[in-house]
Structures are given as structure tokens and as C-alpha cells.
Automatic annotation (TrEMBL):
This is Tetratricopeptide repeat protein. It comes from Leptospira perdikensis.
Length: 123
């Protein structure tokens, strides 16, 4: 299968999600996951975690969210979703830890943008 076909599978998953066909969306995204290198899949795991949370499958949602964050530890949407999951489980200390992580990431990024010598400002 060529890369265009693989990308089309991901796009079909996203379209199915928008149309409310969540089972189909998860199925297509899992197929996509089986076809791509894991280093590019944090968004896919997050995508599935969101659907699972909507379906009130909290434990599975947390597992998928954890996988997204294992791949990309600074993935703020994943951390935000995990906060929501932890709160729904009554696990407020873990939610607080994730919020602290987000705050740290944002502070680091702000510091880079505030530094006129940082490479972010080079053209």
C-alpha cells in the first residue's frame, strides 16, 4: 500500500468521527496505526482515547491516552485529555501532576519566545 492510500485511511477516520460514526472512525484509525511507524502515531492514540472517553470507557481511554503521551510526552492535548480522564475517575492528584506538566511546558515555550536570541526568532 502506498503512502497516499495510508493517508486516505486516516482522513476517512477523521471524516467518520465528524459524522458521528465513532466505531468506524476507531476501526479506520486502528488500521492506520497498523500501517505507519509508531513515532508518528501520538495523535492517533489521542483520537481513539477521545472517542473511548465519549463512550464512557474510561480505563481504555486512559490506556490510549497514556500511549499517546508515551510517544510524545509534551503533547498538550493528550495531557489535557488525561486530566479530564483522571478527574472523571476521581484521581485529582494525577490530574494536578498533568496540569503542572502543562504549566511547565508552557513556561519553557514562553521563555523561548521571550528570548530575542533564541533560534525561534531567526529567519
Amino acid at each position: 500500500m502506498d503512502s497516499k492510500e495510508i493517508i486516505k485511511i486516516r482522513e476517512q477516520a477523521e471524516l467518520a468521527r465528524k459524522e458521528g460514526r465513532n466505531e468506524k472512525a476507531m476501526s479506520l484509525m486502528k488500521e492506520y496505526l497498523s500501517l505507519v511507524h509508531p513515532s508518528f502515531t501520538h495523535y492517533c492514540w489521542f483520537f481513539i482515547a477521545e472517542i473511548l472517553l465519549e463512550k464512557n470507557k474510561i480505563t481504555e481511554a486512559l490506556e490510549h491516552c497514556d500511549e499517546a503521551l508515551r510517544i510524545m510526552k509534551d503533547f498538550i492535548p493528550g495531557l489535557e485529555l488525561r486530566i479530564k480522564i483522571h478527574k472523571s475517575m476521581g484521581n485529582f492528584p494525577e490530574a494536578k501532576k498533568d496540569q503542572t506538566t502543562i504549566d511547565d511546558i508552557q513556561a519553557r515555550e514562553k521563555k523561548k519566545w521571550d528570548d530575542p536570541n533564541h533560534y525561534y526568532h531567526y529567519k
